[in-house]
Every structure is written in structure tokens, then in C-alpha cells.
């Protein structure tokens, strides 16, 4: 039985449980699980939603062909969006900005915070590549005006410029700005903005379902002892503690 | 001043635009686009250096060219990119929008909507939408048939930028009742309702347009609410729970417009509570912009019940919490202050909460803000809170920290700021404990008198209002100080001021001035009775009932003094130049339908004829009888106003023994 099926049946069953605390054996539990009906189409749509939102356009296309599930947005737009995300992840921020402007010129014009973060990332990349002079000029010409237009950016701006003050950048207090995680953060922000502009949900549904399972299990723990799923990736039922 | 780098960059770009090679042109356009998007400072520089005109020309040339020697797709690309650049200049930037309009690009952009290329239409629609977000966009005439048809076709288009453009046009240009009705009759409400089910941007644009069409128009609101058995209204109510904050805000604004226009709708306590909670929560959301506090104000202004609900939902605490954050945009601060002002405008419980939390400290700080609008909002807030009689009487507002910054605002050049500061001071000076010392010590009196000579009528009248409150029940020393500063000639000229509101306040001031002890009455007689004569003259000529009432109370107060005072009042009541009975203003006033005026007049008459034991009392009564005033009074024995009735009877009772009777 597929992992998904297992997890979802578990979830459905917990939701139907009675309120008194009791012990349920594995046999009883599995029997109940088997009685719960989950539709294949629903699961397919969840998978498609995940692939599309995360931007796995080739996988989404293949999945569409093999399962017959229609994606809820045009797969062509995923390619553009993924190109932007990739550019940021590789540190080619200028390229990413141009691509976003080609896709939808309003996004950066109406999202000052996102634009600031992209400019900030550009500055970080210049510093990373040792182009100190260029970095200073960039900070002055491009970032300082953003700080003037919106005072809430000033603190972050100061943190970023502080990188220039340290000889050994990787070991300074603001060194985390140079991490890959910062690039990923910016990339994720751009991705979300593009999805929103296309009226698409920026978060996939799957994580919400898993969170719901964990929460429901925690709730049920107060009322019963039953076989739990402790490892979401394997969805294996572990015997109740008696 | 455009920076050197901007000049340098732009001259290169303009050279590219001027090239005959279309690939080079296209490259220059894309470069310019990427240079300006997201950068207000760059847009400003480029606008000042004439970039917009150059791009507008590029667009125009591309549209008018025959297409020989250049493939269509490059031509379309140039059109798309120039439209995008123009749209970006106009985005959220009035100077840019103005430049686009001035460059004559507007109509070319409109032409793009009819071109058979989806991307071109999209670019044109988007750019026009940006222009229409500015107040400077040209007005759209809905009353013309062709225009209405065009609007309907825009709204029916599947492309969300095109339908969004239709909605933006409505939001921008629909101003009059006639336009609202015309749009409603053309079926626009139904079109907008269907857009509520569309994409995020269609929904938001539609909500804004709906609010514009419904505002203050009962007929259109009724049609909307009845539309599809209330389903349209239900859709909007649902959207107030939407997960996107901006959508929630716009839906709330729409519902508030409906409620304020037709109070019988949306009366359910659940809806009211939901609106209050949603707006309070939106206050804290940074991506919603500055509109949330203004929307909250429009919900609660003048509505006690909603203010009570908001108080229970901790509105004051939440507003205070927002005010403490730093940095804040001036528009947002203004909104929060006005919201606090509305909360405290009617309910003492709200003012209590406000004062307990010590919000006043922050509000007084705002009096020194750079932005005039913020200062005005702070003044309005203080004016609202100082309506708390118990705190006013306890002298909690007559403090240096509050009064000094307010008086500083008097010196500012903007009349709007002066009027707002005067409004706040007017309440604060009604203070009996500290003898208004903080105000006098910081030089407030001198400033106030100077404002009473302002060129602006509303400043003069508000300054007099403050002065009037200042001397209300004040001791003789204060009255003397005020009178020395103001002087009789100025006061007399204010009584005869060209503006009726100023006349009224001047009279009210004199009323308070001469009230109290007998010595105060002498003020009316300084400089050869300058003030008394001015009042008499005004009473003869004015048609405004409020001025008449104040004037009669002045005469009434003066007549409460010595015999000589009463004689002087008689001379004003019965001026020599008048001989025909009906020309005496006293008689006209007694016949007035306004009970306050009849009351004031009767008081004056009572005071001139009492006490009966005064040497001249009897003589004055006879004079009044000779000109028919006593006859008029006798007709008022059963006046519907109790106050009038009682005074009339008192007058007649005292003289009953002399030929008068109570019949």
C-alpha cells in the first residue's frame, strides 16, 4: 500500500475516533484503516500541486502524461519561474531581476521589500566576489535610496554593509549573509511573489496535511494508545506503548 | 536634481532610442525598463531629464510605421517594451503619470487595446491601469454611450489586466451621483460582481470600483443589495474573511460604504463585531498599507455603538501599540491619530482608557512632527480627548507639555494647522483649577489675539472661540489681561466682521466678557461704548439667528448691571432712528420661531425692567409699552417654550398692578 494512502487513512481514522481513552491493538487499527476510502484522483492532485508549486516542471509534465492529472496552472509559466529561482540560487541576481521584469514588470515595482532583498543579494554577491569598490558604489547608488524611501530597510542595509568592514567575512557576526541559505531565502521570496501574481497559492498543500496528521496524533494521544506514525517519510505504524 | 550617473545613463539610453536599428532601440528600451523598475529616485531623475517624452515618441513611431523592412514581431516587441516603460514610470508615482500624459502617450496606449496581439493588449492595459491609479489621469466620461460600451467591453475581457483597467477607470473617474446611476443602469454592478470570483487582482480591483459606485448613493446600494437575492452582498461579506489581507481590507471598506449609505443594512451584531475585529487586525499588517486606520475611522465615526464594540475589542490599546512602533510612515501615523480621535469623540469610557494608557504623551510628541497632516491629526485627537469634562476640570490638560507645542503651531503658516490647533486649545482653556496659567505663561494669549486678526475667516472665528472659552467664568485679572491685549477697537471690528461666523464668535466672546460681576460690564462701555454700539448695530442688520441670540445675551448680561447700564441697553433696543413699530428688531425677535432667540430676548427685557425697585425701571417699562413691546409679550403668556413663558410671566407679574393683567 502506498505511503500516502497509509498516512491519509491514519489521519481520517484519528478524526473519527471516540473520546474515551482506550488501547487499540495494531490489528484493530489496521482493520479500521482499511475501511477508510481515499480517492486516487485526490492524491494525484496533491502530488501535481506539490510538483508545480515547487517548480519541478519536467516532473510535472511527465506526471501529467502518465497519470492524466491536469495541473491547475499553465506548465509554461513554471519554466519561467524556475529560471528566475535558479538564477538567484546561483547568485546571478541581475539576470534574475531582468527575468522577473520580463515575466511581470509590476512585481518589483509594487513589492518594495522583495526588490530591496534582491538588491541586497546583489550587494552580497559583489562582496563575496571580492569586488569591494564596486560593492561600495552599488550600496551608495542603489541601496541607499531604498533605505531613504523606506526606513524599515535601514537596519538590514547596515547589517549588509557591515560585511565590508571585516577582513575575514566568513567569520564575522553577519557572516550568515554569505551562506547559501540567504540565497535560498531570497529565491523563495521571489518564487512566492511570482506565484501570487499569477493568483496561485504560494505554498503546496502537502505540508499542511502532514502538519494536520501530527497535530491530530498529538490530540489523540491524550485519549488513546494506538499505533502511531512517528516517521513521516516511511509512514510505518509503531505499536502502542502498553 | 538628477544625479550625474543618471544623466550619463540616460544619455546613452536616449542615443540607443534614437538609433535607426530597431534591435538597438529594443535593447535601449529593455535597459531603461530594468534601470527604473522599483526605483523611485531613478524614475524621478529620468522624468526630469525628459526620458518619458523620448519613449512616448518611440511608441508613437512604432505604431505609425508601415512595417516594411522590419518584421512584425520586432515592431510589436518595441511597442510592448515602450508601453511597459511608460507604465513603470506611472506606477505609484504622480510625477511619472503626469509626464506620460503630458507626452501625449495616453491615447497611443489606448490604441494598443485594439491591436490583434494578446501580449500588446496586455502591455497596453497594464500601463493604462498604472496611469489610472493616479489622480492626474484624464477623466473618463461615463455619460457618453460610446464610452460606456467601451467600458463594458473592457470589463468583459478575459485578460485580467484589461478587466482590471475597466475597474480602475471606474474607481478613478466615477464621482457624481449621475455617473453612479448611469453605471448601475448599464449593468456594471453585475459585471463587477462576476469579477469578484476572478483572480486576486480582478477581485481587488472590483471591490474598489464597487465601493466607488455605491458610496453615498442609496438607490444604487439598494439595487446592489437586492441583486440576485442578496448573493452579491454575500460575496463581499465572504471576501471580508479572505486570506489575503488586502482583499479583506477592500471588502471591509465596501461593506462600510454600504452601511454608512444605508444604515438599515448590515445591522447584525455579528457583522459589526467582525468588521471591528478584522480592521483592528489589519492595522498590524504591514503589506496592507496606510489605508487600514482610515477605514477603521470610517466605520466608527459618529457611531457610539461601534465605538463601544471597538473599545471592548481593545481598540485603544491596539492603536496605541501601533503608534509606539518606529519608524512609521507619516500617512499611517495620521491615520492612527484620527482613529484615536474618532474613538474618543463621544464616549467618556474611551477617553478614560486613552488617558489611563498615557497615549497622550505620544500624541503630544506628534504635535512637533514635520508633516502638517500629522500635526493636524494630533490636534484633532487632543480636541476629542479634552471633551472629558472631569479631566478638563481637574486640569489634566493645562500642562506645559501640551500647551506649548500647541501654541507653537499657531505660528505655522498653514491655516489648516492653525485652525486644528485652535480647536484643541479651545477645549483646554476651559479649565478652572490652574487658572490657565500654563497657557498664559507660554505666551498663548498674545498669539491667540494675533490669530484673531488673521486674513483667513475661519482662523479668526476659531481664535475668537478659543478666547471666548478662555474668559468663560474667568476671574477679573484674566479678563483684564485679555482685554488689554485684544482692545476695544479690534473687538468692535470683529463684531462687524464680514464673515458671519466671526461676528457670532465675537458676540459670544463679549457675552462671556461682561458676564459675572458688575465691573465686567464696564468693558462694553470703553472707548465711548464702542462695543455696545457695535453690537446694537449688528443686531439691527443681521439676519442670522445665531448672531441674534448671542447679541441678545450680551444685552441681557449688560442689563443685569446698574441703572445706567440698563438705560444704555434700552438705547440699543429702541434706537432713535426707528419709529414704526415693526421695525424694532426686538419685536421681530420676540416673534421668531426659534425658541432660543425668544428666550434671550425675553431675558434682556426682564433685566431692563427689574428690579421693579430700581429708579428707572418703571420708566423703561412705560417706554416698552409705548412701542408695543409689552403687548407683544402679553401674547406670549402661553409660549410653548417653558423658559420663555416663565420670564414673560415674571415681567408681567411685577407690573400687574399697573394696568397689566395676566389674562
Automatic annotation (TrEMBL), chain A:
<protein>
    <recommendedName>
        <fullName>CTLH domain-containing protein</fullName>
    </recommendedName>
</protein>
<dbReference type="InterPro" id="IPR050618">
    <property type="entry name" value="Ubq-SigPath_Reg"/>
</dbReference>
<dbReference type="InterPro" id="IPR006595">
    <property type="entry name" value="CTLH_C"/>
</dbReference>
<dbReference type="InterPro" id="IPR024964">
    <property type="entry name" value="CTLH/CRA"/>
</dbReference>
<dbReference type="InterPro" id="IPR006594">
    <property type="entry name" value="LisH"/>
</dbReference>
<dbReference type="InterPro" id="IPR013144">
    <property type="entry name" value="CRA_dom"/>
</dbReference>
<dbReference type="Pfam" id="PF10607">
    <property type="entry name" value="CTLH"/>
</dbReference>
<feature type="domain" description="CTLH">
    <location>
        <begin position="77"/>
        <end position="134"/>
    </location>
</feature>
<dbReference type="Pfam" id="PF08513">
    <property type="entry name" value="LisH"/>
</dbReference>
Automatic annotation (TrEMBL), chain B:
<dbReference type="GO" id="GO:0043161">
    <property type="term" value="P:proteasome-mediated ubiquitin-dependent protein catabolic process"/>
</dbReference>
<dbReference type="InterPro" id="IPR016024">
    <property type="entry name" value="ARM-type_fold"/>
</dbReference>
<keyword id="KW-0539">Nucleus</keyword>
<protein>
    <recommendedName>
        <fullName>Armadillo repeat-containing protein 8</fullName>
    </recommendedName>
</protein>
<dbReference type="GO" id="GO:0005737">
    <property type="term" value="C:cytoplasm"/>
</dbReference>
<keyword id="KW-0677">Repeat</keyword>
<dbReference type="InterPro" id="IPR011989">
    <property type="entry name" value="ARM-like"/>
</dbReference>
<dbReference type="GO" id="GO:0034657">
    <property type="term" value="C:GID complex"/>
</dbReference>
<feature type="repeat" description="ARM">
    <location>
        <begin position="443"/>
        <end position="470"/>
    </location>
</feature>
<dbReference type="InterPro" id="IPR038739">
    <property type="entry name" value="ARMC8/Vid28"/>
</dbReference>
<dbReference type="GO" id="GO:0005634">
    <property type="term" value="C:nucleus"/>
</dbReference>
<keyword id="KW-0963">Cytoplasm</keyword>
<dbReference type="InterPro" id="IPR000225">
    <property type="entry name" value="Armadillo"/>
</dbReference>
<dbReference type="Pfam" id="PF00514">
    <property type="entry name" value="Arm"/>
</dbReference>
Amino acid at each position: 500500500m502506498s505511503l500516502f494512502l497509509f498516512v491519509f487513512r491514519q489521519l481520517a481514522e484519528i478524526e473519527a475516533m471516540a473520546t474515551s481513552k482506550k488501547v487499540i491493538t495494531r490489528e484493530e487499527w489496521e482493520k479500521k484503516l482499511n475501511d477508510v476510502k481515499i480517492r486516487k484522483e485526490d492524491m494525484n492532485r496533491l502530488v501535481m500541486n506539490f510538483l508545480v508549486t515547487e517548480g519541478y516542471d519536467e516532473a510535472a509534465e511527465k506526471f501529467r502524461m502518465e497519470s492524466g492529472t491536469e495541473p491547475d496552472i499553465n506548465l509554461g509559466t513554471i519554466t519561467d519561474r524556475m529560471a528566475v529561482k535558479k538564477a538567484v540560487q546561483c547568485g546571478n541576481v541581475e539576470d534574475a531581476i531582468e527575468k522577473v521584469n520580463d515575466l511581470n514588470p509590476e512585481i518589483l515595482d509594487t513589492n518594495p521589500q522583495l526588490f530591496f532583498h534582491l538588491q541586497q543579494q546583489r550587494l552580497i554577491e559583489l562582496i563575496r566576489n571580492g569586488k569591494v569598490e564596486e560593492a561600495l558604489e552599488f550600496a551608495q547608488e542603489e541601496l541607499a535610496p531604498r533605505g531613504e524611501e523606506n526606513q524599515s530597510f535601514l537596519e538590514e542595509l547596515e547589517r549588509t554593509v557591515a560585511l565590508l568592514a571585516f577582513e575575514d567575512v566568513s567569520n564575522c557576526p553577519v557572516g550568515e549573509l554569505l551562506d547559501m541559505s540567504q540565497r535560498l531565502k531570497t529565491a523563495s521570496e521571489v518564487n512566492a511573489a511570482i506565484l501570487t501574481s499569477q493568483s496561485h497559492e504560494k505554498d503546496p498543500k502537502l505540508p499542511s496535511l502532514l502538519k494536520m496528521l501530527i497535530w491530530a496524533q498529538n490530540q489523540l494521544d491524550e485519549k488513546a494508545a494506538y499505533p502511531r506514525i512517528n516517521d513521516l517519510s516511511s509512514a510505518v505504524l509503531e505499536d502502542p506503548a502498553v | 536634481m538628477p544625479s550625474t550617473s543618471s544623466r550619463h545613463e540616460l544619455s546613452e539610453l536616449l542615443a540607443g532610442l534614437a538609433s535607426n536599428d530597431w534591435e538597438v532601440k529594443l535593447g535601449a528600451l529593455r535597459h531603461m525598463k530594468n534601470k527604473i523598475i522599483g526605483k523611485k529616485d531613478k524614475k524621478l531623475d529620468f522624468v526630469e531629464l525628459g526620458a518619458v517624452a523620448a519613449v512616448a515618441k518611440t511608441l508613437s513611431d512604432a505604431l505609425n510605421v508601415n512595417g516594411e523592412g522590419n518584421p512584425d514581431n520586432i515592431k510589436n516587441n518595441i511597442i510592448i517594451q515602450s508601453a511597459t516603460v511608460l507604465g513603470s514610470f506611472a506606477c505609484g508615482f504622480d510625477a511619472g503619470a503626469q509626464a506620460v500624459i503630458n507626452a501625449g502617450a495616453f491615447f497611443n496606449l489606448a490604441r494598443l487595446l485594439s491591436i490583434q496581439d494578446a501580449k500588446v493588449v496586455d502591455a497596453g492595459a497594464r500601463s493604462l491601469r498604472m496611469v489610472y491609479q493616479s489622480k492626474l489621469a484624464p477623466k473618463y466620461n461615463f455619460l457618453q454611450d460610446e464610452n460606456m460600451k467601451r467600458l463594458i467591453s473592457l470589463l468583459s475581457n478575459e485578460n485580467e489586466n484589461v478587466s482590471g483597467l475597466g475597474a480602475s477607470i471606474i474607481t478613478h473617474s466615477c464621482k457624481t451621483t449621475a455617473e453612479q446611476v448611469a453605471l448601475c443602469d448599464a449593468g456594471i454592478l453585475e459585471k463587477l460582481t462576476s469579477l469578484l470570483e476572478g483572480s486576486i487582482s480582478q477581485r481587488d480591483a472590483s471591490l474598489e470600483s464597487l465601493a466607488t459606485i455605491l458610496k453615498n448613493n442609496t438607490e444604487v446600494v439598494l439595487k446592489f443589495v437586492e441583486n440576485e437575492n442578496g448573493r452579491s452582498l454575500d460575496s463581499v461579506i465572504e471576501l471580508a474573511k479572505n486570506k489575503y489581507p488586502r482583499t479583506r481590507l477592500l471588502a471591509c471598506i465596501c461593506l462600510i460604504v454600504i452601511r454608512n449609505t444605508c444604515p438599515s443594512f448590515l445591522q447584525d451584531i455579528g457583522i459589526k463585531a467582525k468588521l471591528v475585529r478584522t480592521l483592528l487586525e489589519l492595522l498590524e499588517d504591514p503589506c496592507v498599507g496606510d489605508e487600514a486606520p482610515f477605514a477603521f475611522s470610517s466605520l466608527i465615526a459618529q457611531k457610539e455603538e461601534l465605538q463601544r464594540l471597538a473599545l471592548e475589542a481593545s481598540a485603544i490599546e491596539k492603536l496605541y501599540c501601533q503608534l509606539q512602533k518606529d519608524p512609521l510612515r507619516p500617512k499611517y501615523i495620521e491615520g492612527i491619530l484620527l482613529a484615536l480621535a474618532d474613538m474618543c469623540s463621544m464616549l467618556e469610557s474611551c477617553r478614560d482608557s486613552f488617558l489611563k494608557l498615557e497615549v497622550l504623551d505620544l500624541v503630544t510628541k506628534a504635535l512637533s512632527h514635520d508633516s502638517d497632516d500629522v500635526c493636524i491629526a494630533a490636534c484633532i485627537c487632543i480636541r476629542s480627548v479634552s471633551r472629558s469634562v472631569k479631566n478638563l476640570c481637574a486640569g489634566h490638560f493645562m500642562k506645559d507639555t501640551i500647551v506649548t507645542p500647541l501654541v507653537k503651531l499657531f505660528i505655522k503658516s498653514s491655516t489648516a494647522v492653525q485652525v486644528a490647533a485652535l480647536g484643541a486649545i479651545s477645549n483646554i482653556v476651559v479649565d478652572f483649577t490652574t487658572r490657565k496659567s500654563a497657557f498664559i505663561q507660554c505666551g498663548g494669549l498674545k498669539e491667540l489675539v494675533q490669530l484673531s486678526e488673521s486674513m483667513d475667516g475661519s482662523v479668526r472665528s476659531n481664535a475668537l472661540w478659543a478666547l471666548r472659552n478662555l474668559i468663560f467664568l474667568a476671574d477679573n485679572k484674566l479678563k483684564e489681561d485679555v482685554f488689554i491685549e485684544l482692545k476695544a477697537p479690534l473687538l468692535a471690528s470683529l463684531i462687524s466682521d464680514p464673515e458671519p461666523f466671526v461676528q457670532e464668535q465675537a458676540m459670544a466672546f463679549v457675552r462671556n466678557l461682561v458676564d459675572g460681576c458688575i465691573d465686567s460690564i464696564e468693558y462694553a462701555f470703553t472707548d465711548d461704548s464702542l462695543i455696545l454700539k457695535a453690537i446694537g448695530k449688528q443686531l439691527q442688520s443681521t439676519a442670522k439667528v445665531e448672531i441674534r441670540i448671542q447679541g441678545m445675551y450680551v444685552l441681557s448680561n449688560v442689563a443685569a448691571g446698574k441703572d445706567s447700564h440698563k438705560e444704555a441697553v434700552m438705547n440699543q433696543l429702541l434706537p432713535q432712528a426707528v419709529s414704526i413699530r415693526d421695525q424694532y428688531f426686538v419685536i421681530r425677535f420676540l416673534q421668531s420661531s426659534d425658541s432660543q432667540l425668544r428666550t434671550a430676548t425675553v431675558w434682556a427685557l426682564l433685566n431692563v425692567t427689574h428690579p421693579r425697585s430700581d429708579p428707572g425701571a418703571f420708566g423703561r417699562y412705560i417706554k416698552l409699552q409705548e412701542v408695543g413691546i409689552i403687548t407683544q409679550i402679553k401674547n406670549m403668556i402661553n409660549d410653548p417654550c417653558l423658559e420663555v413663558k416663565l420670564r414673560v410671566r415674571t415681567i408681567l407679574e411685577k407690573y400687574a398692578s399697573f394696568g397689566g393683567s395676566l389674562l
